[in-house]
Amino acid sequence: MPAFDPALLRPQFPALAARQDGRPVVFLDGPGGTQVPGRVIDAVADYYRASNANVHGAFATSVRSDAILDEARAALADLLGAASPEEVKLGQNMTSLAFALSRSIARVLRPGDEVVISRLDHEANRAPWIAAAADAGATVREVAVEPGTCTLDLGSLDAVLSARTRLVAVGWASNAVGTVNAVAEIVRRAHAVGAWTFVDAVHYAPHGPLDVVGLGADFLACSAYKFFGPHLGILWGRAELLDALPAYKVRPAADRWETGTQNHEGIAGTLAAVEYLAEVGDRFGIGAGDGPAAASAASRRARLTAGMRAIEAYERELSARVLAGLASIPGLTVHGLADPARAAERTPTFAVTMAGWTPRGLAKALAASGIYAWDGDFYATTLVEDLGLAASGGVVRLGLVHYTTLGEVDRLLATLAALASGPRD
């Protein structure tokens, strides 16, 4: 199997050619939204050129639009490992879809029921369930975080689970500090007490393979703009639950969970993003080195899984390199798993603070050097508060993805080392 080489993929991303002051820009803003391959841009434009129509019409552009949407739903089912494309629902974004689902679940909750959430999560996987519980007179229980490693305390989970638990909502990975949670084990423990599970896979989706059937979850959501596509939200749910839950919908709507006219051009671009990830599998995974015939013989699901496993392995190499380098920078603190030997337990997303620098000041200094990274709490508000960092502006988030090169990592580390020894903000 060929070694993963981002240089073979980067030319497909037009934004990665950007320069600032004569130097290439380093995009470490992936957790807030990744850059996209040219095929995604082309798919959005081509939809407008050739297929721009509403659905279910008798004329050619509507027929083409239907075909694109059907194929995109099938492709997303392959990406997620879903049993059927009918289990895939599309919407504005993960947050909107989570609120819509929580509103329906609130109608089947009763006083005395309990909902479990995590203090590690993005607010989009907290606020909807807090609101649902409040509407139903149910109680919210919270899973604690180990502050040193920013990992979930599974003992705390066991302490809040009971026969009254109706739903456990958890993130697959933290968008702020990169922790990959033991979601399969969390799902198992939740099911053992008869609870449903909702998994927020927004941050995890660009970093590793998804398998909703193997995971055993009841619901899962992610966002295409975090895995190299346009702004689009994706909700998966087990068919029997989606069919049974009460849904808020317009009477003639063809789908119980999709309201109004969808973002057709974004869906077309999302199909192209999934096809790109399957190509990664062709290059570096299944059939790699055996020629196009071997790749084309594999199912799209197999190609996607191979691609995401190749990405996952490469990103672990990136994580180990980053963590080893950050450890040598005086005054810099990594919040979360900082041991390079534990790179497999995290995504290459690093929350850092540096003595003498505010997060915004450090982010500005990096930006002036052509390194783009976010600062703040990234809606992981509860976690940042628990870490005692909210009042000082949160953290700087260094978010790497598979198009990040080892050379860019070295440039980041050298820049941070220079900032640590130079004037402060």
Q: What is the topology?
A:
Blueprint: E1 19-20, E2 23-24, E3 26-27, H1 38-50, H2 60-80, E4 88-91, H3 94-106, E5 114-118, H4 127-136, E6 139-143, E7 145-146, E8 151-152, H5 154-160, E9 165-171, H6 183-192, E10 196-200, H7 212-215, E11 219-223, E12 233-237, H8 239-244, H9 264-284, H10 292-297, H11 300-326, E13 332-335, E14 349-354, H12 359-368, E15 371-372, E16 374-376, H13 381-386, E17 395-399, H14 406-421
Parallel strand pairs: 3-15, 5-6, 5-9, 9-10, 10-11
Antiparallel strand pairs: 1-2, 4-12, 7-8, 11-12, 13-14, 14-17, 16-17
Helix pairs in contact: 1-9, 2-9, 3-4, 9-11, 11-14
CATH topology of the largest domain, what is it called?
Aspartate Aminotransferase, domain 2
Shape: globular
> What separation lies between the terminal Cα atoms?
47 Å
- Overall number of domains: 2
- How many strands, what sense, and barrel or not for the largest sheet? 7 strands, mixed
Gyration radius over CA: 22 Å
- Helical content stands at 40-55%
Query: Strands of the biggest beta sheet: in what spatial order?
Result: 4-12-11-10-9-5-6
What is the tally of beta strands?
A: 17
Main structural class? alpha/beta
CATH superfamily of the largest domain: Type I PLP-dependent aspartate aminotransferase-like (Major domain)
**Low-pLDDT residue intervals, each spanning 5 or more residues:** none
Strand content: 15-25%
Architecture (CATH level 2) name of the largest domain: 3-Layer(aba) Sandwich
Number of helices in the DSSP assignment: 14
CATH class assignment of the largest domain: Alpha Beta
What would the average pLDDT be, to the nearest integer?
96
